[in-house]
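Fold this sequence, please.
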Amino acid sequence: MSLGPSATRDTSGLNDLDPAGRSPFELGDWRVEPDRLRLLRGDESRKLEPMAMRLLLFLAERPAEVISRAEVLQQVWEGRAVVDETLSRAVSLVRQALGDNAQNPTYIETIPKRGYRLIASVRPDPAESTPGVETSVSNEVAKRKPSAVMSTWGILLALVILLALLMLWQVGPSDEQTVGDRVSPATATGEASQRPGIAVLPFKNLSPDLENAYLADGLTEQIIHQLAEVSGLRVVSRTSSMSFRDSAALAPDIARTLRVDYLLEGTVLVVDQRVRISARLIRPETDDHLLSRTYDRSLSEILDLQREVAKDVAEHTRTQLSPREAIRLAREQPVSSDAYRAYLQGRQLVEQRRELD
């Protein structure tokens, strides 16, 4: 199946996902016009954002194949530092435009803990294709009915997040509340490869209370978020980093796999209302420990602690901070420890729900 300008286009290369100049094709009962960023079905016409169309093109190049979230982020966003919610939002936009249902899909199926699969038939545009050229994907996916369990998940998730938002109301707007692509000017001009790359590996939980494990994951994600805001760094997505949880791979092998120059690893210990983070910044190529420091704060100062870790990492990678970035990372912002716990629990439920969607 070819989705390019001509029927002889080589589809083995997946880096050219620019909708401009791409030929129309049929997807299920929709006609997809990439260059116009629109979907047509009878009298219906629906628009897609450019990145959502790139995602649809990528999935359409490999119908029926399960593609991991990490690979989608790498190929569609070309290694740019984006948060996982960006991919989830793009998938949601495509599903919404197609009129698809995540619980009972006919176009895009979520494979829990693995990735996504395009399950609708993909066909060349009849006006441009030759007879007999067709790629079909079976639509015989089990017609799963929404269960009461999923409804319970949704109610519980909504209650926890509502509680967290109400408790965090006193904090006011912050950079942590911004979701979407975080692309630096260097990336936009094709200079992303000149920035040093870093992966934040999952921090290990040392807390005596195993229920605090969600705090370690939450801190890992928030530190990734803080570093992704530094324009001079190229930060690997949470999905790619988390794939190395409990991995026995050596640091140089992890760095080669993720194509990064630095690895940040550490531990988290929470006792009562205090949190202690031990962070180590490693240059795998030489096995140098550029940073090895312990941070001890109260949970009410957790946001300051995350910014301090990000600031130290940027300095030890010799990354130049802009004045705005320096101010943001130095800003003090106390937060209710109960609200922060509720927020991280809510985020954990979001991730668990996403794996089921």
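Confidence is low (pLDDT under 50) at residues 4-15, 130-150, 169-192. The first strand starts at residue 25 and ends at 27.
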